Amino acid sequence: MVHIIDLKFQGSTESIAAFILESDIGPILFEAGPYSTFHTLKIEIEKIGYAISDIKHVFISHIHFDHAGAAWKFAEHGANIYVHPAGLPHLNNPEKLWGSAVRIYGAAMEKLWGVMEPISLDNLVPLMHLENIQLGEFEIKALHTPGHAIHHIAFSVNDMVFGGDVAGVCIGDGPVVPPCPPPDIHIEDWCSSIELIKKLNPKFLYLTHFGLVKKPVQDHLNILENTLLKYAEWVLKEMETHSDISIIIDSFQSMVEKLWLENKMDEQIIMRYSLANPSFMTVSGLIRYWTKVKGVKWN
């Protein structure tokens, strides 16, 4: 059984999720969320009937704070933290990761994400592409799925996939959108990762933002890919006429708001999308893709 845990990030429901998979050997956690929501996660785990110390296996899709920020607290209680090899050093020594984020979030850093402590190498388990981990009755397969992040892993378990961020953001009945923060956005890799998940044809797809996908999984992934390509081309076109990123961000926000109105989204869901996938991050990530990956001259 999979339990979807709403971490109530910044007081908002359906923004960031973690998942408990019950097994013969105890609870298995997928995603740890930011440390700022650890208290909520602890309470929700206890409601299911477990203590934090019962969780000995934590699978992290990638090291961004909304996914991995609280992983160190589980490691303190003896849990193994499973992560891609390229992300592992940053969990062992998060100083560089934290410093990069401070340049973006400034004084709001701790309010948003809490704190992040180093995880001992003894508790960090690197997972390669297609590597299998047998835990109780479940075989958990690591799927290296770059595009959102170089070190991103989705996890396949039976007919389920825990898609992290590479499988997109979809909140309530809202649209499917790609979260595109810097520095690792790579459109071609992301499309390949989507194709990998499509070929698996899972019956159930779980998103960190947010929960179980309601529409047919193949439809969801097709929409995600189309929107990713649309966003990338839109940003490239804006770069041809604007040298000021703030103008592009404002224009992108207007375009997104039009999409929200077309979907008749209420203000609460709009706020959840803004928390899970802020426009300034998407524009920044896609501009970095065009300039650093594709060599487009800009600004």
Layout of secondary structure:
Layout: E1 2-6, E2 17-23, E3 26-30, H1 38-48, E4 57-59, H2 65-68, H3 71-76, E5 80-83, H4 88-92, H5 95-105, H6 109-113, E6 124-126, E7 132-135, E8 138-144, E9 153-157, E10 160-162, H7 187-200, E11 204-207, E12 211-212, H8 217-241, H9 245-262, H10 267-276, H11 279-293
Parallel strand pairs: 3-4, 4-5, 5-6, 10-11
Antiparallel strand pairs: 1-2, 2-3, 7-8, 8-9, 9-10, 11-12
Helix pairs in contact: 7-8, 8-11, 9-11
Structure description:
Helix 9 (about 245-260) packs across helix 11. The protein has about 300 residues and is an alpha/beta fold. It contains eleven helices and twelve strands. It has two domains: about 1-225, Metallo-beta-lactamase, Chain A; about 230-295, no CATH class. The strands form two sheets. Strands 1-2-3-4-5-6 form a six-stranded mixed beta sheet. Strands 7-8-9-10-11-12 form a six-stranded mixed beta sheet. Helices cover about 40% and strands about 15% of the residues. The mean pLDDT is about 95. The termini are far apart.
Assembly state: single chain
| Mean pLDDT, all residues | 93
Portion in beta strands: 15-25%
Largest sheet: 6 strands, mixed
- Over the alpha carbons, how many angstroms does the gyration radius reach? 18 Å
Can you say what the CATH homologous superfamily of the largest domain is? Ribonuclease Z/Hydroxyacylglutathione hydrolase-like
Treating each run of at least 4 consecutive H or I residues as one helix, how many helices? 11
Question: What is the ordering of alpha helices and beta strands?
Answer: EEEHEHHEHHHEEEEEHEEHHHH
The beta-strand count equals 12
Write out the strand line-up for the largest beta sheet, numbering strands in chain order: 1-2-3-4-5-6
Please estimate the helix content: 40-55%
CATH topology of the largest domain: Metallo-beta-lactamase, Chain A
Category from helices, strands and their pairing: alpha/beta
Distance between the termini: 51 Å
How would you describe the shape?
globular
Count of distinct structural domains: 2
Specify the CATH architecture of the largest domain.
4-Layer Sandwich
Query: What is the CATH top level name of the largest domain?
Result: Alpha Beta
**Poorly predicted spans:** none
